[in-house]
Amino acid sequence: MQSNTFSGLFDCRNVITLQRVSSTNEFLKEELSKSTPLPEGTVIMAVDQYAGRGQKGTVWQSEPGKNLTVSLLLMPSFSDPKDQFRLTVAISIALVQWLETLLQTPVRIKWPNDMYVGNQKIGGILIENILKGKVWKSAIIGIGINVNQTAFDPAIDPHTTSVKQILQKDFDLTELLTDLCVLIEQEYEGLKKAAYKSQFAFYTQHLYRLGESHPFLVDGVRVQGVLSGVTETGRLQVDFNGHIVDFDIKEIAFVV
Ligand code: BTN
Asked: Which of the 8 DSSP states describes residue 8?
């Protein structure tokens, strides 16, 4: 385990690089259960994450040393746990801003927090919250971004891209992480200062397929609807012939 301190990154707190780990989210969760407290802003970065996890129990695969596979520790105890979606919004919009600057192309959020360029996924977020009673003790922000990898297993996801596939060159992962953390910190501070409404507006404007009519799977049945937005608690709103229905993540799937 190698520990570094970056100036300007989460107030110069810890960045821990692990050569090989099952999952950075899992590692952070285990560390949090130990008696030595970890400071907010701790970042775990994996070189080789061999059992990465995605949303809805999916697998997150990454070639060793090629991509950003990181977990950040935040302690949003200033916020009511019922507002958990606000953190998803803040982190998602930081990623959009960072990716759009890097790629110089539009990036969209496939609800709730996948990063898409066109119809291809370039990264995703897995946020795991730890509550104690009514207090939101900590949030593990797992981020996976395809950076220098150029071949992906189509059986896992046939619609995948990477920074290198778009820009045709390799990038230094530590430098990218530093830039990303600046934006995450900025949006997290914005959340503390109640910038939620403008963050929510940015998130909504950047939703993948906003205002477009597409098929969705609802309980395994294919239905056509227009993605019309999200509720403040993070439910997806779909307009079926003028009748708006909202869904949580287990209830609906995109057909890409
Ligand atoms: C998704 O798209 O479903 C979310 C992917 C999240 C992957 C990241 S990689 C770092 C962190 N550790 C994990 O096991 N998962 C997240």
From this structure: T
